Structure formats: structure tokens, C-alpha cells
Amino acid sequence: MALYSEQRLMVHNSLSGKKELFEPLHEGYVGMYVCGPTVYSNVHLGNCRTFMSFDMIFRYLRHLGYKVRYVRNITDAGHLEDDADQGEDKIAKKARLEQIEPMEVVQRYTVDFHNILEKFNFLPPSIEPTATGHIVEQIEIIKVILDKGYAYEKNGSVYFDVVKFNSDHEYGKLSGRKLEDMIANTRELTAQDEKKNPQDFALWKRAEPQHIMRWPSPWGEGFPGWHLECTVMSTKYLGETFDIHGGGMDLKFPHHECEIAQAEASNDVSPVRYWLHANMLTLNGKKMAKSTGNNLLPHEIFTGDNPTLSKAYTASVVRFFMMQAHYTSILDLSDDALLAAEKGYNRLMDALDLLGNLNTGKQSDMDVAAWKQRCYDAMNDDFNSPVLIAQLFEAVKTINLVNDGKASLTQEDLAVLTEVMNAFVFDVLGLETRTGAGVESNKLEGVVGLLIELRNAARANKDYATSDRIRDELAAMGIQLKDGKEGTTFSI
Ligand SMILES: [Zn+2]
């Protein structure tokens, strides 16, 4: 029986503003879409936090036994400098400034994005589609929306008619905004504006002569509006209605609101069952911004090369720091907070290192089954990772007491505790051990432990040829065995 059938996962749905029982459309399967980066600059640490929140959610769903199709896109066209369909395409602008091809910009920053996420031990999504790879599909959906009367063409551009849509649908239901208020609070359109209404948004934009990224369409050469790619790629790979759509809080309006409008206008069904939004990361109590200098890039954390930091931090310490906050809360990063996180992370890893060498007893001083369920309860409560971490530290306390001979655990309980600790620390939170590769390094410990046992058995049989061979071959691979009073340990 899959774990998910024993657990009641509740998620905070931005659409209802409430925590709801998570029930996927198809039992055992979850479709999840997360808005990916616009690849025109190095990935921002705040964005890393958003993607890490969804990586943790992806990991927990998998841990529960769901087969998850996780789609996270790459925006490589159509994202203009401001939300009102004005300004240059962000990627084309960077290409112009650096005098390179737009696709060189895309390639450079996609590689940077992947490198940083790999350092943070992210699981890759199931599909990572690009906007430029789905131009045909975007043109097709524009035709449908035009046919249904929810869009209009003007001078080679196509705009979504928000007022028309709102007359028989509800525009603003995700962000809790009313169209009448939006209209009352915006400026009048000028004679140059092509839109009927300032709230209308571009589905297709005519390419001006200097615009490099352009494709042919029934309305002339142009490029798709930014909101459209997510509607197309999410529904293409996950179906007209799918389970989870995630993204940063800042995307709720207008981006996600527009996604809902486009999908409902073309398919007549609501695209997403659970909308999840991750909150932002601040630095020393203030919003991060390049312009004010209150900014920190991921690679600067790993080198310590930023005035705000006293030293370098590993990716796992940063990940542990981020997991200490609920994904819907604002999290403030500072040097002090990272130092504290490093201490906590080391305490956790110290305890995990002890797990393999604990003596077991006849009775347990900890109710391990109840503790295990409390770990699940924490994650079932809208992926409450800080409460989970508090539970993990309850186990750390017991592990240290058992190690000091001041408490005991039965062999069975120790086995359960070890399994649950490893599952939550490495599989769900995605942390890695201090030597690097999380679960991989755990496996290595297991393999070397087995070789140590075989070597001990050989020595007991006076088969010194075998025992020396094990020691020497491990040494040749850079793994040193050390024989001591407490038995044999190893170092790499
Ligand atoms: Zn999106």
C-alpha cells in the first residue's frame, strides 16, 4: 500500500485561501507545474528559494509514493521588461547589450541555472520545456481564443479582452482583485494605445523592425505574450486540468491570473486544482535589489565573497537554513542566521554520524512510532518543514542521550528511527552530508561498512591475504581504514 493512502496531506490553496485536503485528479498520480526562470541573468537567490520550496514539495510527494510529473519551464522569449506589455524583451535586451545572439544568452544562463540548482541538490523536473519550443502551440491557442471572442487583433498584435472575459467569467479570483476596482485605479488609455482597456494583455505582439526574436504568424511576424507559454506548456503536458501549479508570490498577479483567464477562455475549464505560492527571501531585513547593492548571488555564498558575509557556507547549510522557514513565510537571510543554521546543520549531521554505532537496549526511552507520525503530521500540514526539523531535533536529543549511555532504544526502534531520519533529512529535505553527496555517501558508508565486516571475518579466520587486500585496495581508492579500540572506522 502506498504511503499516501495512510497520510492526510493538507495544502494551502491560494485560490480558496484555505488549507484543503490534497486529492489528485487521478489516484496515485500528481501533475505539477512551476513557472521557471527567465534566463537573461544569473539565477537570483530569491528564485532559488522558490524553486527549492517546490523541490521539497516534489520530494515529499514522491516520498509518499505518488508518481509525479513535474514540469518546470524555461522562459526564453516573450518576457518584456514590464508587466504592461511595454519595453524590450529581457533576453533580446541582454543580447543587444552584450552583442551576442539571444540564444547565446539563453544557453549561458540556462547552464548557470542548472549548475546552481545542482549544487543545492535539486531533483531535475520531469520535463523542462521552453517557450521558443512551443511557438506553434501558442499560435494555435490564440486562434481558439480569438474564435471564442475573448481576444481581438490590432495592427498585428493580439490582445486578450479582459472586460469581455469578465462578463461571463471571473477575472481576479486568484489574486482577490475586482476588475471594476482595477479599472478605476488605472490611467486612461492614450490615443497611441492599441488596447481597448489597460487591463487587456498581449497574447501576441507585433515585432518592430529592431526586434530580433520573431516568428511568422497569421497576424504577421511577432512573438508570444509572456503569460501564454505557461498556459500552453502546462496543459500540453499535464492536461486541461491538473493538480498543482506553483510559483513565487509575485507571479500571482498578473501572470497566474492571466493563465487562468487564457485557459478558461480556450477550454472552458479551470486549469488548476491547487495553486501554491512560495514567499520571498529578504537580505538583512530588506528586499534584495541589484540597484541598492542589497544583493547576494548564490555563488557568492559558496565563496564568502560578499561584504554581508563573514565566511563561505556550503549549499547544504543554505538549504537547511531555507528549510527552517515555512515556504509561505518571508525569510530573512543574514550572516548571523547562516551561522546559526550552520550550527544546527552540524548538530543534525553529528547525530546522523552516530546512528550506525549506537548500542541498543531492552527497552526504549522514546516513543519512536509516535515521533515518526509527528514527522509526517508536520509535512502533511502544508509541507511544514520547520516543524519537521523541530521533530528531527527531538530525535537528535535521544540519539545523543543513547550515545552517552543515558537513554536506550531497542534494536527495532533504532532501525525505524534511522530509516525515518534518513528519509526526511536526505530524501525529503534534500540535505547532503558534510562530505557531499547525501544519500550516495550513505550508500558508500554502507558498502565500506560491509567490507570492514568481511575484513574482520577474514582476520578472525587468519586469512591475512584477504584482509590486507581489502585494506590496500580501499587505500588505493583513497579510503583509509583505521583500527581502534571501538572497532574499525574509515576516512576518505
Ligand atoms: Zn508561468
Automatic annotation (TrEMBL):
UniProt EC number: 6.1.1.16
Record SMART domains: DALR_2 (SM00840)
Catalyzed reaction equations: tRNA(Cys) + L-cysteine + ATP = L-cysteinyl-tRNA(Cys) + AMP + diphosphate
Principal place of residence: cytoplasm
Binding site for ATP: K290
Membrane-crossing segments per the record: none
Binding of Zn(2+), residues: C35, C230, H255, E259
GO cellular component, one term: cytosol
Record-stated family: Belongs to the class-I aminoacyl-tRNA synthetase family.
Domain (Cysteinyl-tRNA synthetase class Ia DALR) ranges: 374-440
InterPro entries: Cys-tRNA-ligase (IPR015803), Cys-tRNA-synt_Ia_DALR (IPR015273), Cys-tRNA/MSH_ligase (IPR024909), Rossmann-like_a/b/a_fold (IPR014729), tRNA-synt_1_cat_dom (IPR032678), tRNAsynth_Ia_anticodon-bd (IPR009080)
Domain of life: Bacteria
GO biological process, one term: cysteinyl-tRNA aminoacylation
Sequence motif 'HIGH' region, residues: 37-47
Source organism of this protein record: Robiginitalea myxolifaciens
Record motif 'KMSKS' region, residues: 287-291
PANTHER family (alphabetical): CYSTEINE--TRNA LIGASE, CYTOPLASMIC, CYSTEINYL-TRNA SYNTHETASE
Localization, UniProt: Cytoplasm
One Gene Ontology term of the molecular function aspect: cysteine-tRNA ligase activity
One Pfam family here: tRNA-synt_1e
Subunit structure and binding partners: Monomer.
Keywords associated with the record: Aminoacyl-tRNA synthetase, ATP-binding, Cytoplasm, Ligase, Metal-binding, Nucleotide-binding, Protein biosynthesis, Zinc
Co-factor requirement: Zn(2+)
Protein name: Cysteine--tRNA ligase
